[in-house]
Design a protein that fits this description.
This protein is α/β, with parallel strands linked by helices. Helix content is about 25%, strand content about 20%. The chain contains five helices and eight strands. A hairpin with a 6-residue loop joins strand 2 and strand 3. The C terminus is likely disordered.
């Protein structure tokens, strides 16, 4: 009969994999009158790993980060064929999952888009919804948001995390595609990346792979 002490315990095994702690950053933009709350989840890895990973950028971080990080953890922990990636959620300061509902209407639309945000009855009924500062852009601010992503956020993440340069993807709610394609700034920001993105197949969401 084998002794229970013949095998190393979980606590003494070497090269164990772990998920590093989730980081939260507040990043003040020069292009948007806004501080963005950025949450970063690194993939399952060993402590000695020198691997670099593609990055998946997620908008609507207040509402979707918990969902997306949970799915990412399950995929990477239990499906060995799944791509490992760094998850970066772009949200707004605030603990409420609806904190960004008005601000997303500013950041994901170009001038001329149908105004489906300002005056929406639900926004008047909800507490915890953040509003743009008085006197600043409150709709059609996608061009400025693009510059925040490309000139501020992506370099910030690349400088602090083990990313694969120029291999990134975007994941966002499909509801935005009900509007004219030209209205959605994040969609126009992306450049197709021939089969080099993160392999995801989550229904009812739009996933785009892109390179800078």
């Amino acid at each position: 009969m084998s002794d229970a002490h013949d095998s190393p315990s979980v606590s003494t095994r070497v090269n164990r994999c772990h998920f590093p702690p989730i980081d939260t950053h507040l990043l003040r933009s020069k292009h948007v009158a806004q501080s963005f709350q950025i949450k970063v989840m690194q993939p399952l890895q060993s402590k000695e790993s020198a691997t670099r990973f593609p990055v998946l950028y997620l908008t609507d971080g207040n509402a979707l980060f918990d969902l997306a990080s949970g799915i990412a953890a399950l995929m990477q922990a239990f499906r060995s064929e799944s791509s490992r990636f760094i998850l970066v959620a772009v949200g707004y300061p605030g603990q409420s999952p609806i904190a960004g509902e008005a601000l997303r209407g500013r950041d994901l639309t170009f001038p001329g888009c149908p105004d489906f945000v300002r005056g929406h009855s639900l926004l008047a009924e909800w507490d915890g919804v953040l509003l743009p500062p008085a006197g600043t852009t409150d709709f059609g601010g996608a061009a400025e948001f693009q510059r925040f992503l490309g000139e501020e956020l992506i370099p910030y993440i690349d400088a602090r995390y083990p990313t694969v340069p120029h291999v990134r993807a975007y994941f966002g709610c499909k509801s935005g595609r009900r509007q004219a394609d030209g209205c959605w700034g994040v969609k126009l920001f992306l450049k197709p990346c021939r089969s080099r993105g993160v392999d995801l197949n989550w229904p009812r969401f739009a996933t785009h792979a892109f390179e800078s």
